[in-house]
Amino acid sequence: MYLSPRFRAFAAGAALLAASALAQAQQALPNVVILATGGTIAGAGASAVNSATYAAAKVGVEKLIAGLPELTKIANVKGEQVFQVASESLTDDNLLTLAKRVSALSKQSDVDGIVITHGTDTLEETAYFLTLTVHTAKPIIVVGSMRPGTALSADGALNLYNAVSVAGSKDAMGKGVLVTMNDEIQSGRDVSKSINIKTEAFKSQWGPLGMVVEGRNYWFRAPVKRHTMQSEFDIDAITALPPVEIAMGYEGVSSTAIDALGKSGIKALIHGGTGNGSVANRIVPNLQKVRADGVIVIRSSRVPDGFVLRNAEQPDDKYDWVVAHDLRPQKARILAMVALTKTSDTKELQRIFWEY
To answer: Which H or E element spans position 21?
Structure first.
C-alpha cells in the first residue's frame, strides 16, 4: 500500500510524540525495587481450592511481577531474587544478607522505595530487624500472603500491589519499616502474626498505622519507638549476630531447656514466661546460674498483648535481669542480637529495650 511522504512523516512524528509521552510518564513514576525471598506469596497449590496446602517459594520474582501488570501504572518496578525459601527456614546469615542489600539499595538515588516479599511465618522478625538496622528514610515495605497465588481468593496480588504503592509514596517516608497486609499498614516493630489460617493474620496490639485503599494511604498514627534513621545500630557495621535462644514457660516447666541452652555458648537467653513474664519458682535458681555464668537473661511473655513490668513478678534489679517490655519472645530475640553487637551491660540493654 502506497503511503505518501507527508503521511509517513506524520506517522513518524506521532510515534515520536507517543514515545516521548511514555518516557515522561515513566519518569514521573517512583522507582521501586522488589526483593523476593520466597514464602507463600511465591507459593503454588495443586488446585484452586488449596489455600492451606501448597508448596511455598516456587514462583520467581519476575513471574510475580509479570502476573501483576497493574504495577506498571503506579511505579517503575525492578525485581531481584535474594532467596527462594520458606521463611521458617531463614537463618541469621540470611537476615544479614538481606539487610545489607536493602541498605545498599536505599543509598541509590534511582531507588525511591523497596519492597521485600517474604513468608509470613517469620515476616515480623525480618521486618523488626530491618527497622533496627537500616538507616534510611525511604519506605521499606515487607509483604507476604496467607494464600498462594493459585488459590481462590488469593490475597498476594493485592498485598503486593499495595506494598509497591506504599513504597512509592512520599507520605510513607520516615515512618520506619512497614508491613502491608489485608489493606492495613502496620509498623514492622509492632506487628505479629496472630492466626495461621485467615487473611487478616497480622495484627498489632497498638493498632495499624493506617490503611491503603485503591492506591491511596490513610494514616492514623505514627511510630514513637526509635527506628531506621534514629537507630544507633547500623547494618553496614554489623558482620555477625551473637547467638540468642528462647526458653518458654508453661505449667509443669522443667529446667532442662534452660540448663542445656545455658551451656551451649549463647550470649543471651529469652525466657518467654507466662502472664507478666512470670518465672516458675523451681527454675529461678537455674536462670540465676545462667546469669552468673555470663549469659544475659531477658524476661519476655508468651501472652500476645500487654507488656512486662520490671521488678513486678521477679526482682530484676537484684538478679541483674532485663525485661523485654512489650516485645514477644521472637522479637525480643531480634533486639537482643542487635543490641549485643554494641554492649553486654545490662543497664544499657534495659535502656535499649525501653527505647526500641
So the answer is: helix 5-28
C-alpha span between 143 and 226 (Å, rounded)? 22
As separate numbers, helices (DSSP H) first and strands (DSSP E) second, the chain gives 10, 14
Question: What distance in Å separates the CA atoms of residue 69 and residue 247, rounded to the nearest whole number?
Answer: 46
| Active site (catalytic) residues | 40
CB-based contacts of 70-74 (< 8 A; 24+ apart in sequence): 70/161, 71/160, 71/161, 71/164, 74/29, 74/30, 74/161, 74/164, 74/165, 74/168, 74/215
Helix (H, G, I), strand (E, B) or coil at 172: helix
Query: What domains appear along the chain, each with residue ranges and CATH number?
Result: 29-230 (3.40.50.1170), 243-355 (3.40.50.40)
Percentage of residues in the chain with pLDDT exceeding 70?
Answer: 92
Strand partners, 245: 269
> pLDDT of 18-32, one tens digit each?
444 444 445 699 999
Tens digit of each residue's pLDDT (9 = 90 or more) over 322-341: 999 999 999 999 999 999 99
Q: Is 273 helix (H, G, I), strand (E, B) or coil?
A: strand
Tens digit of pLDDT for each residue in 287-296?
999 999 999 9
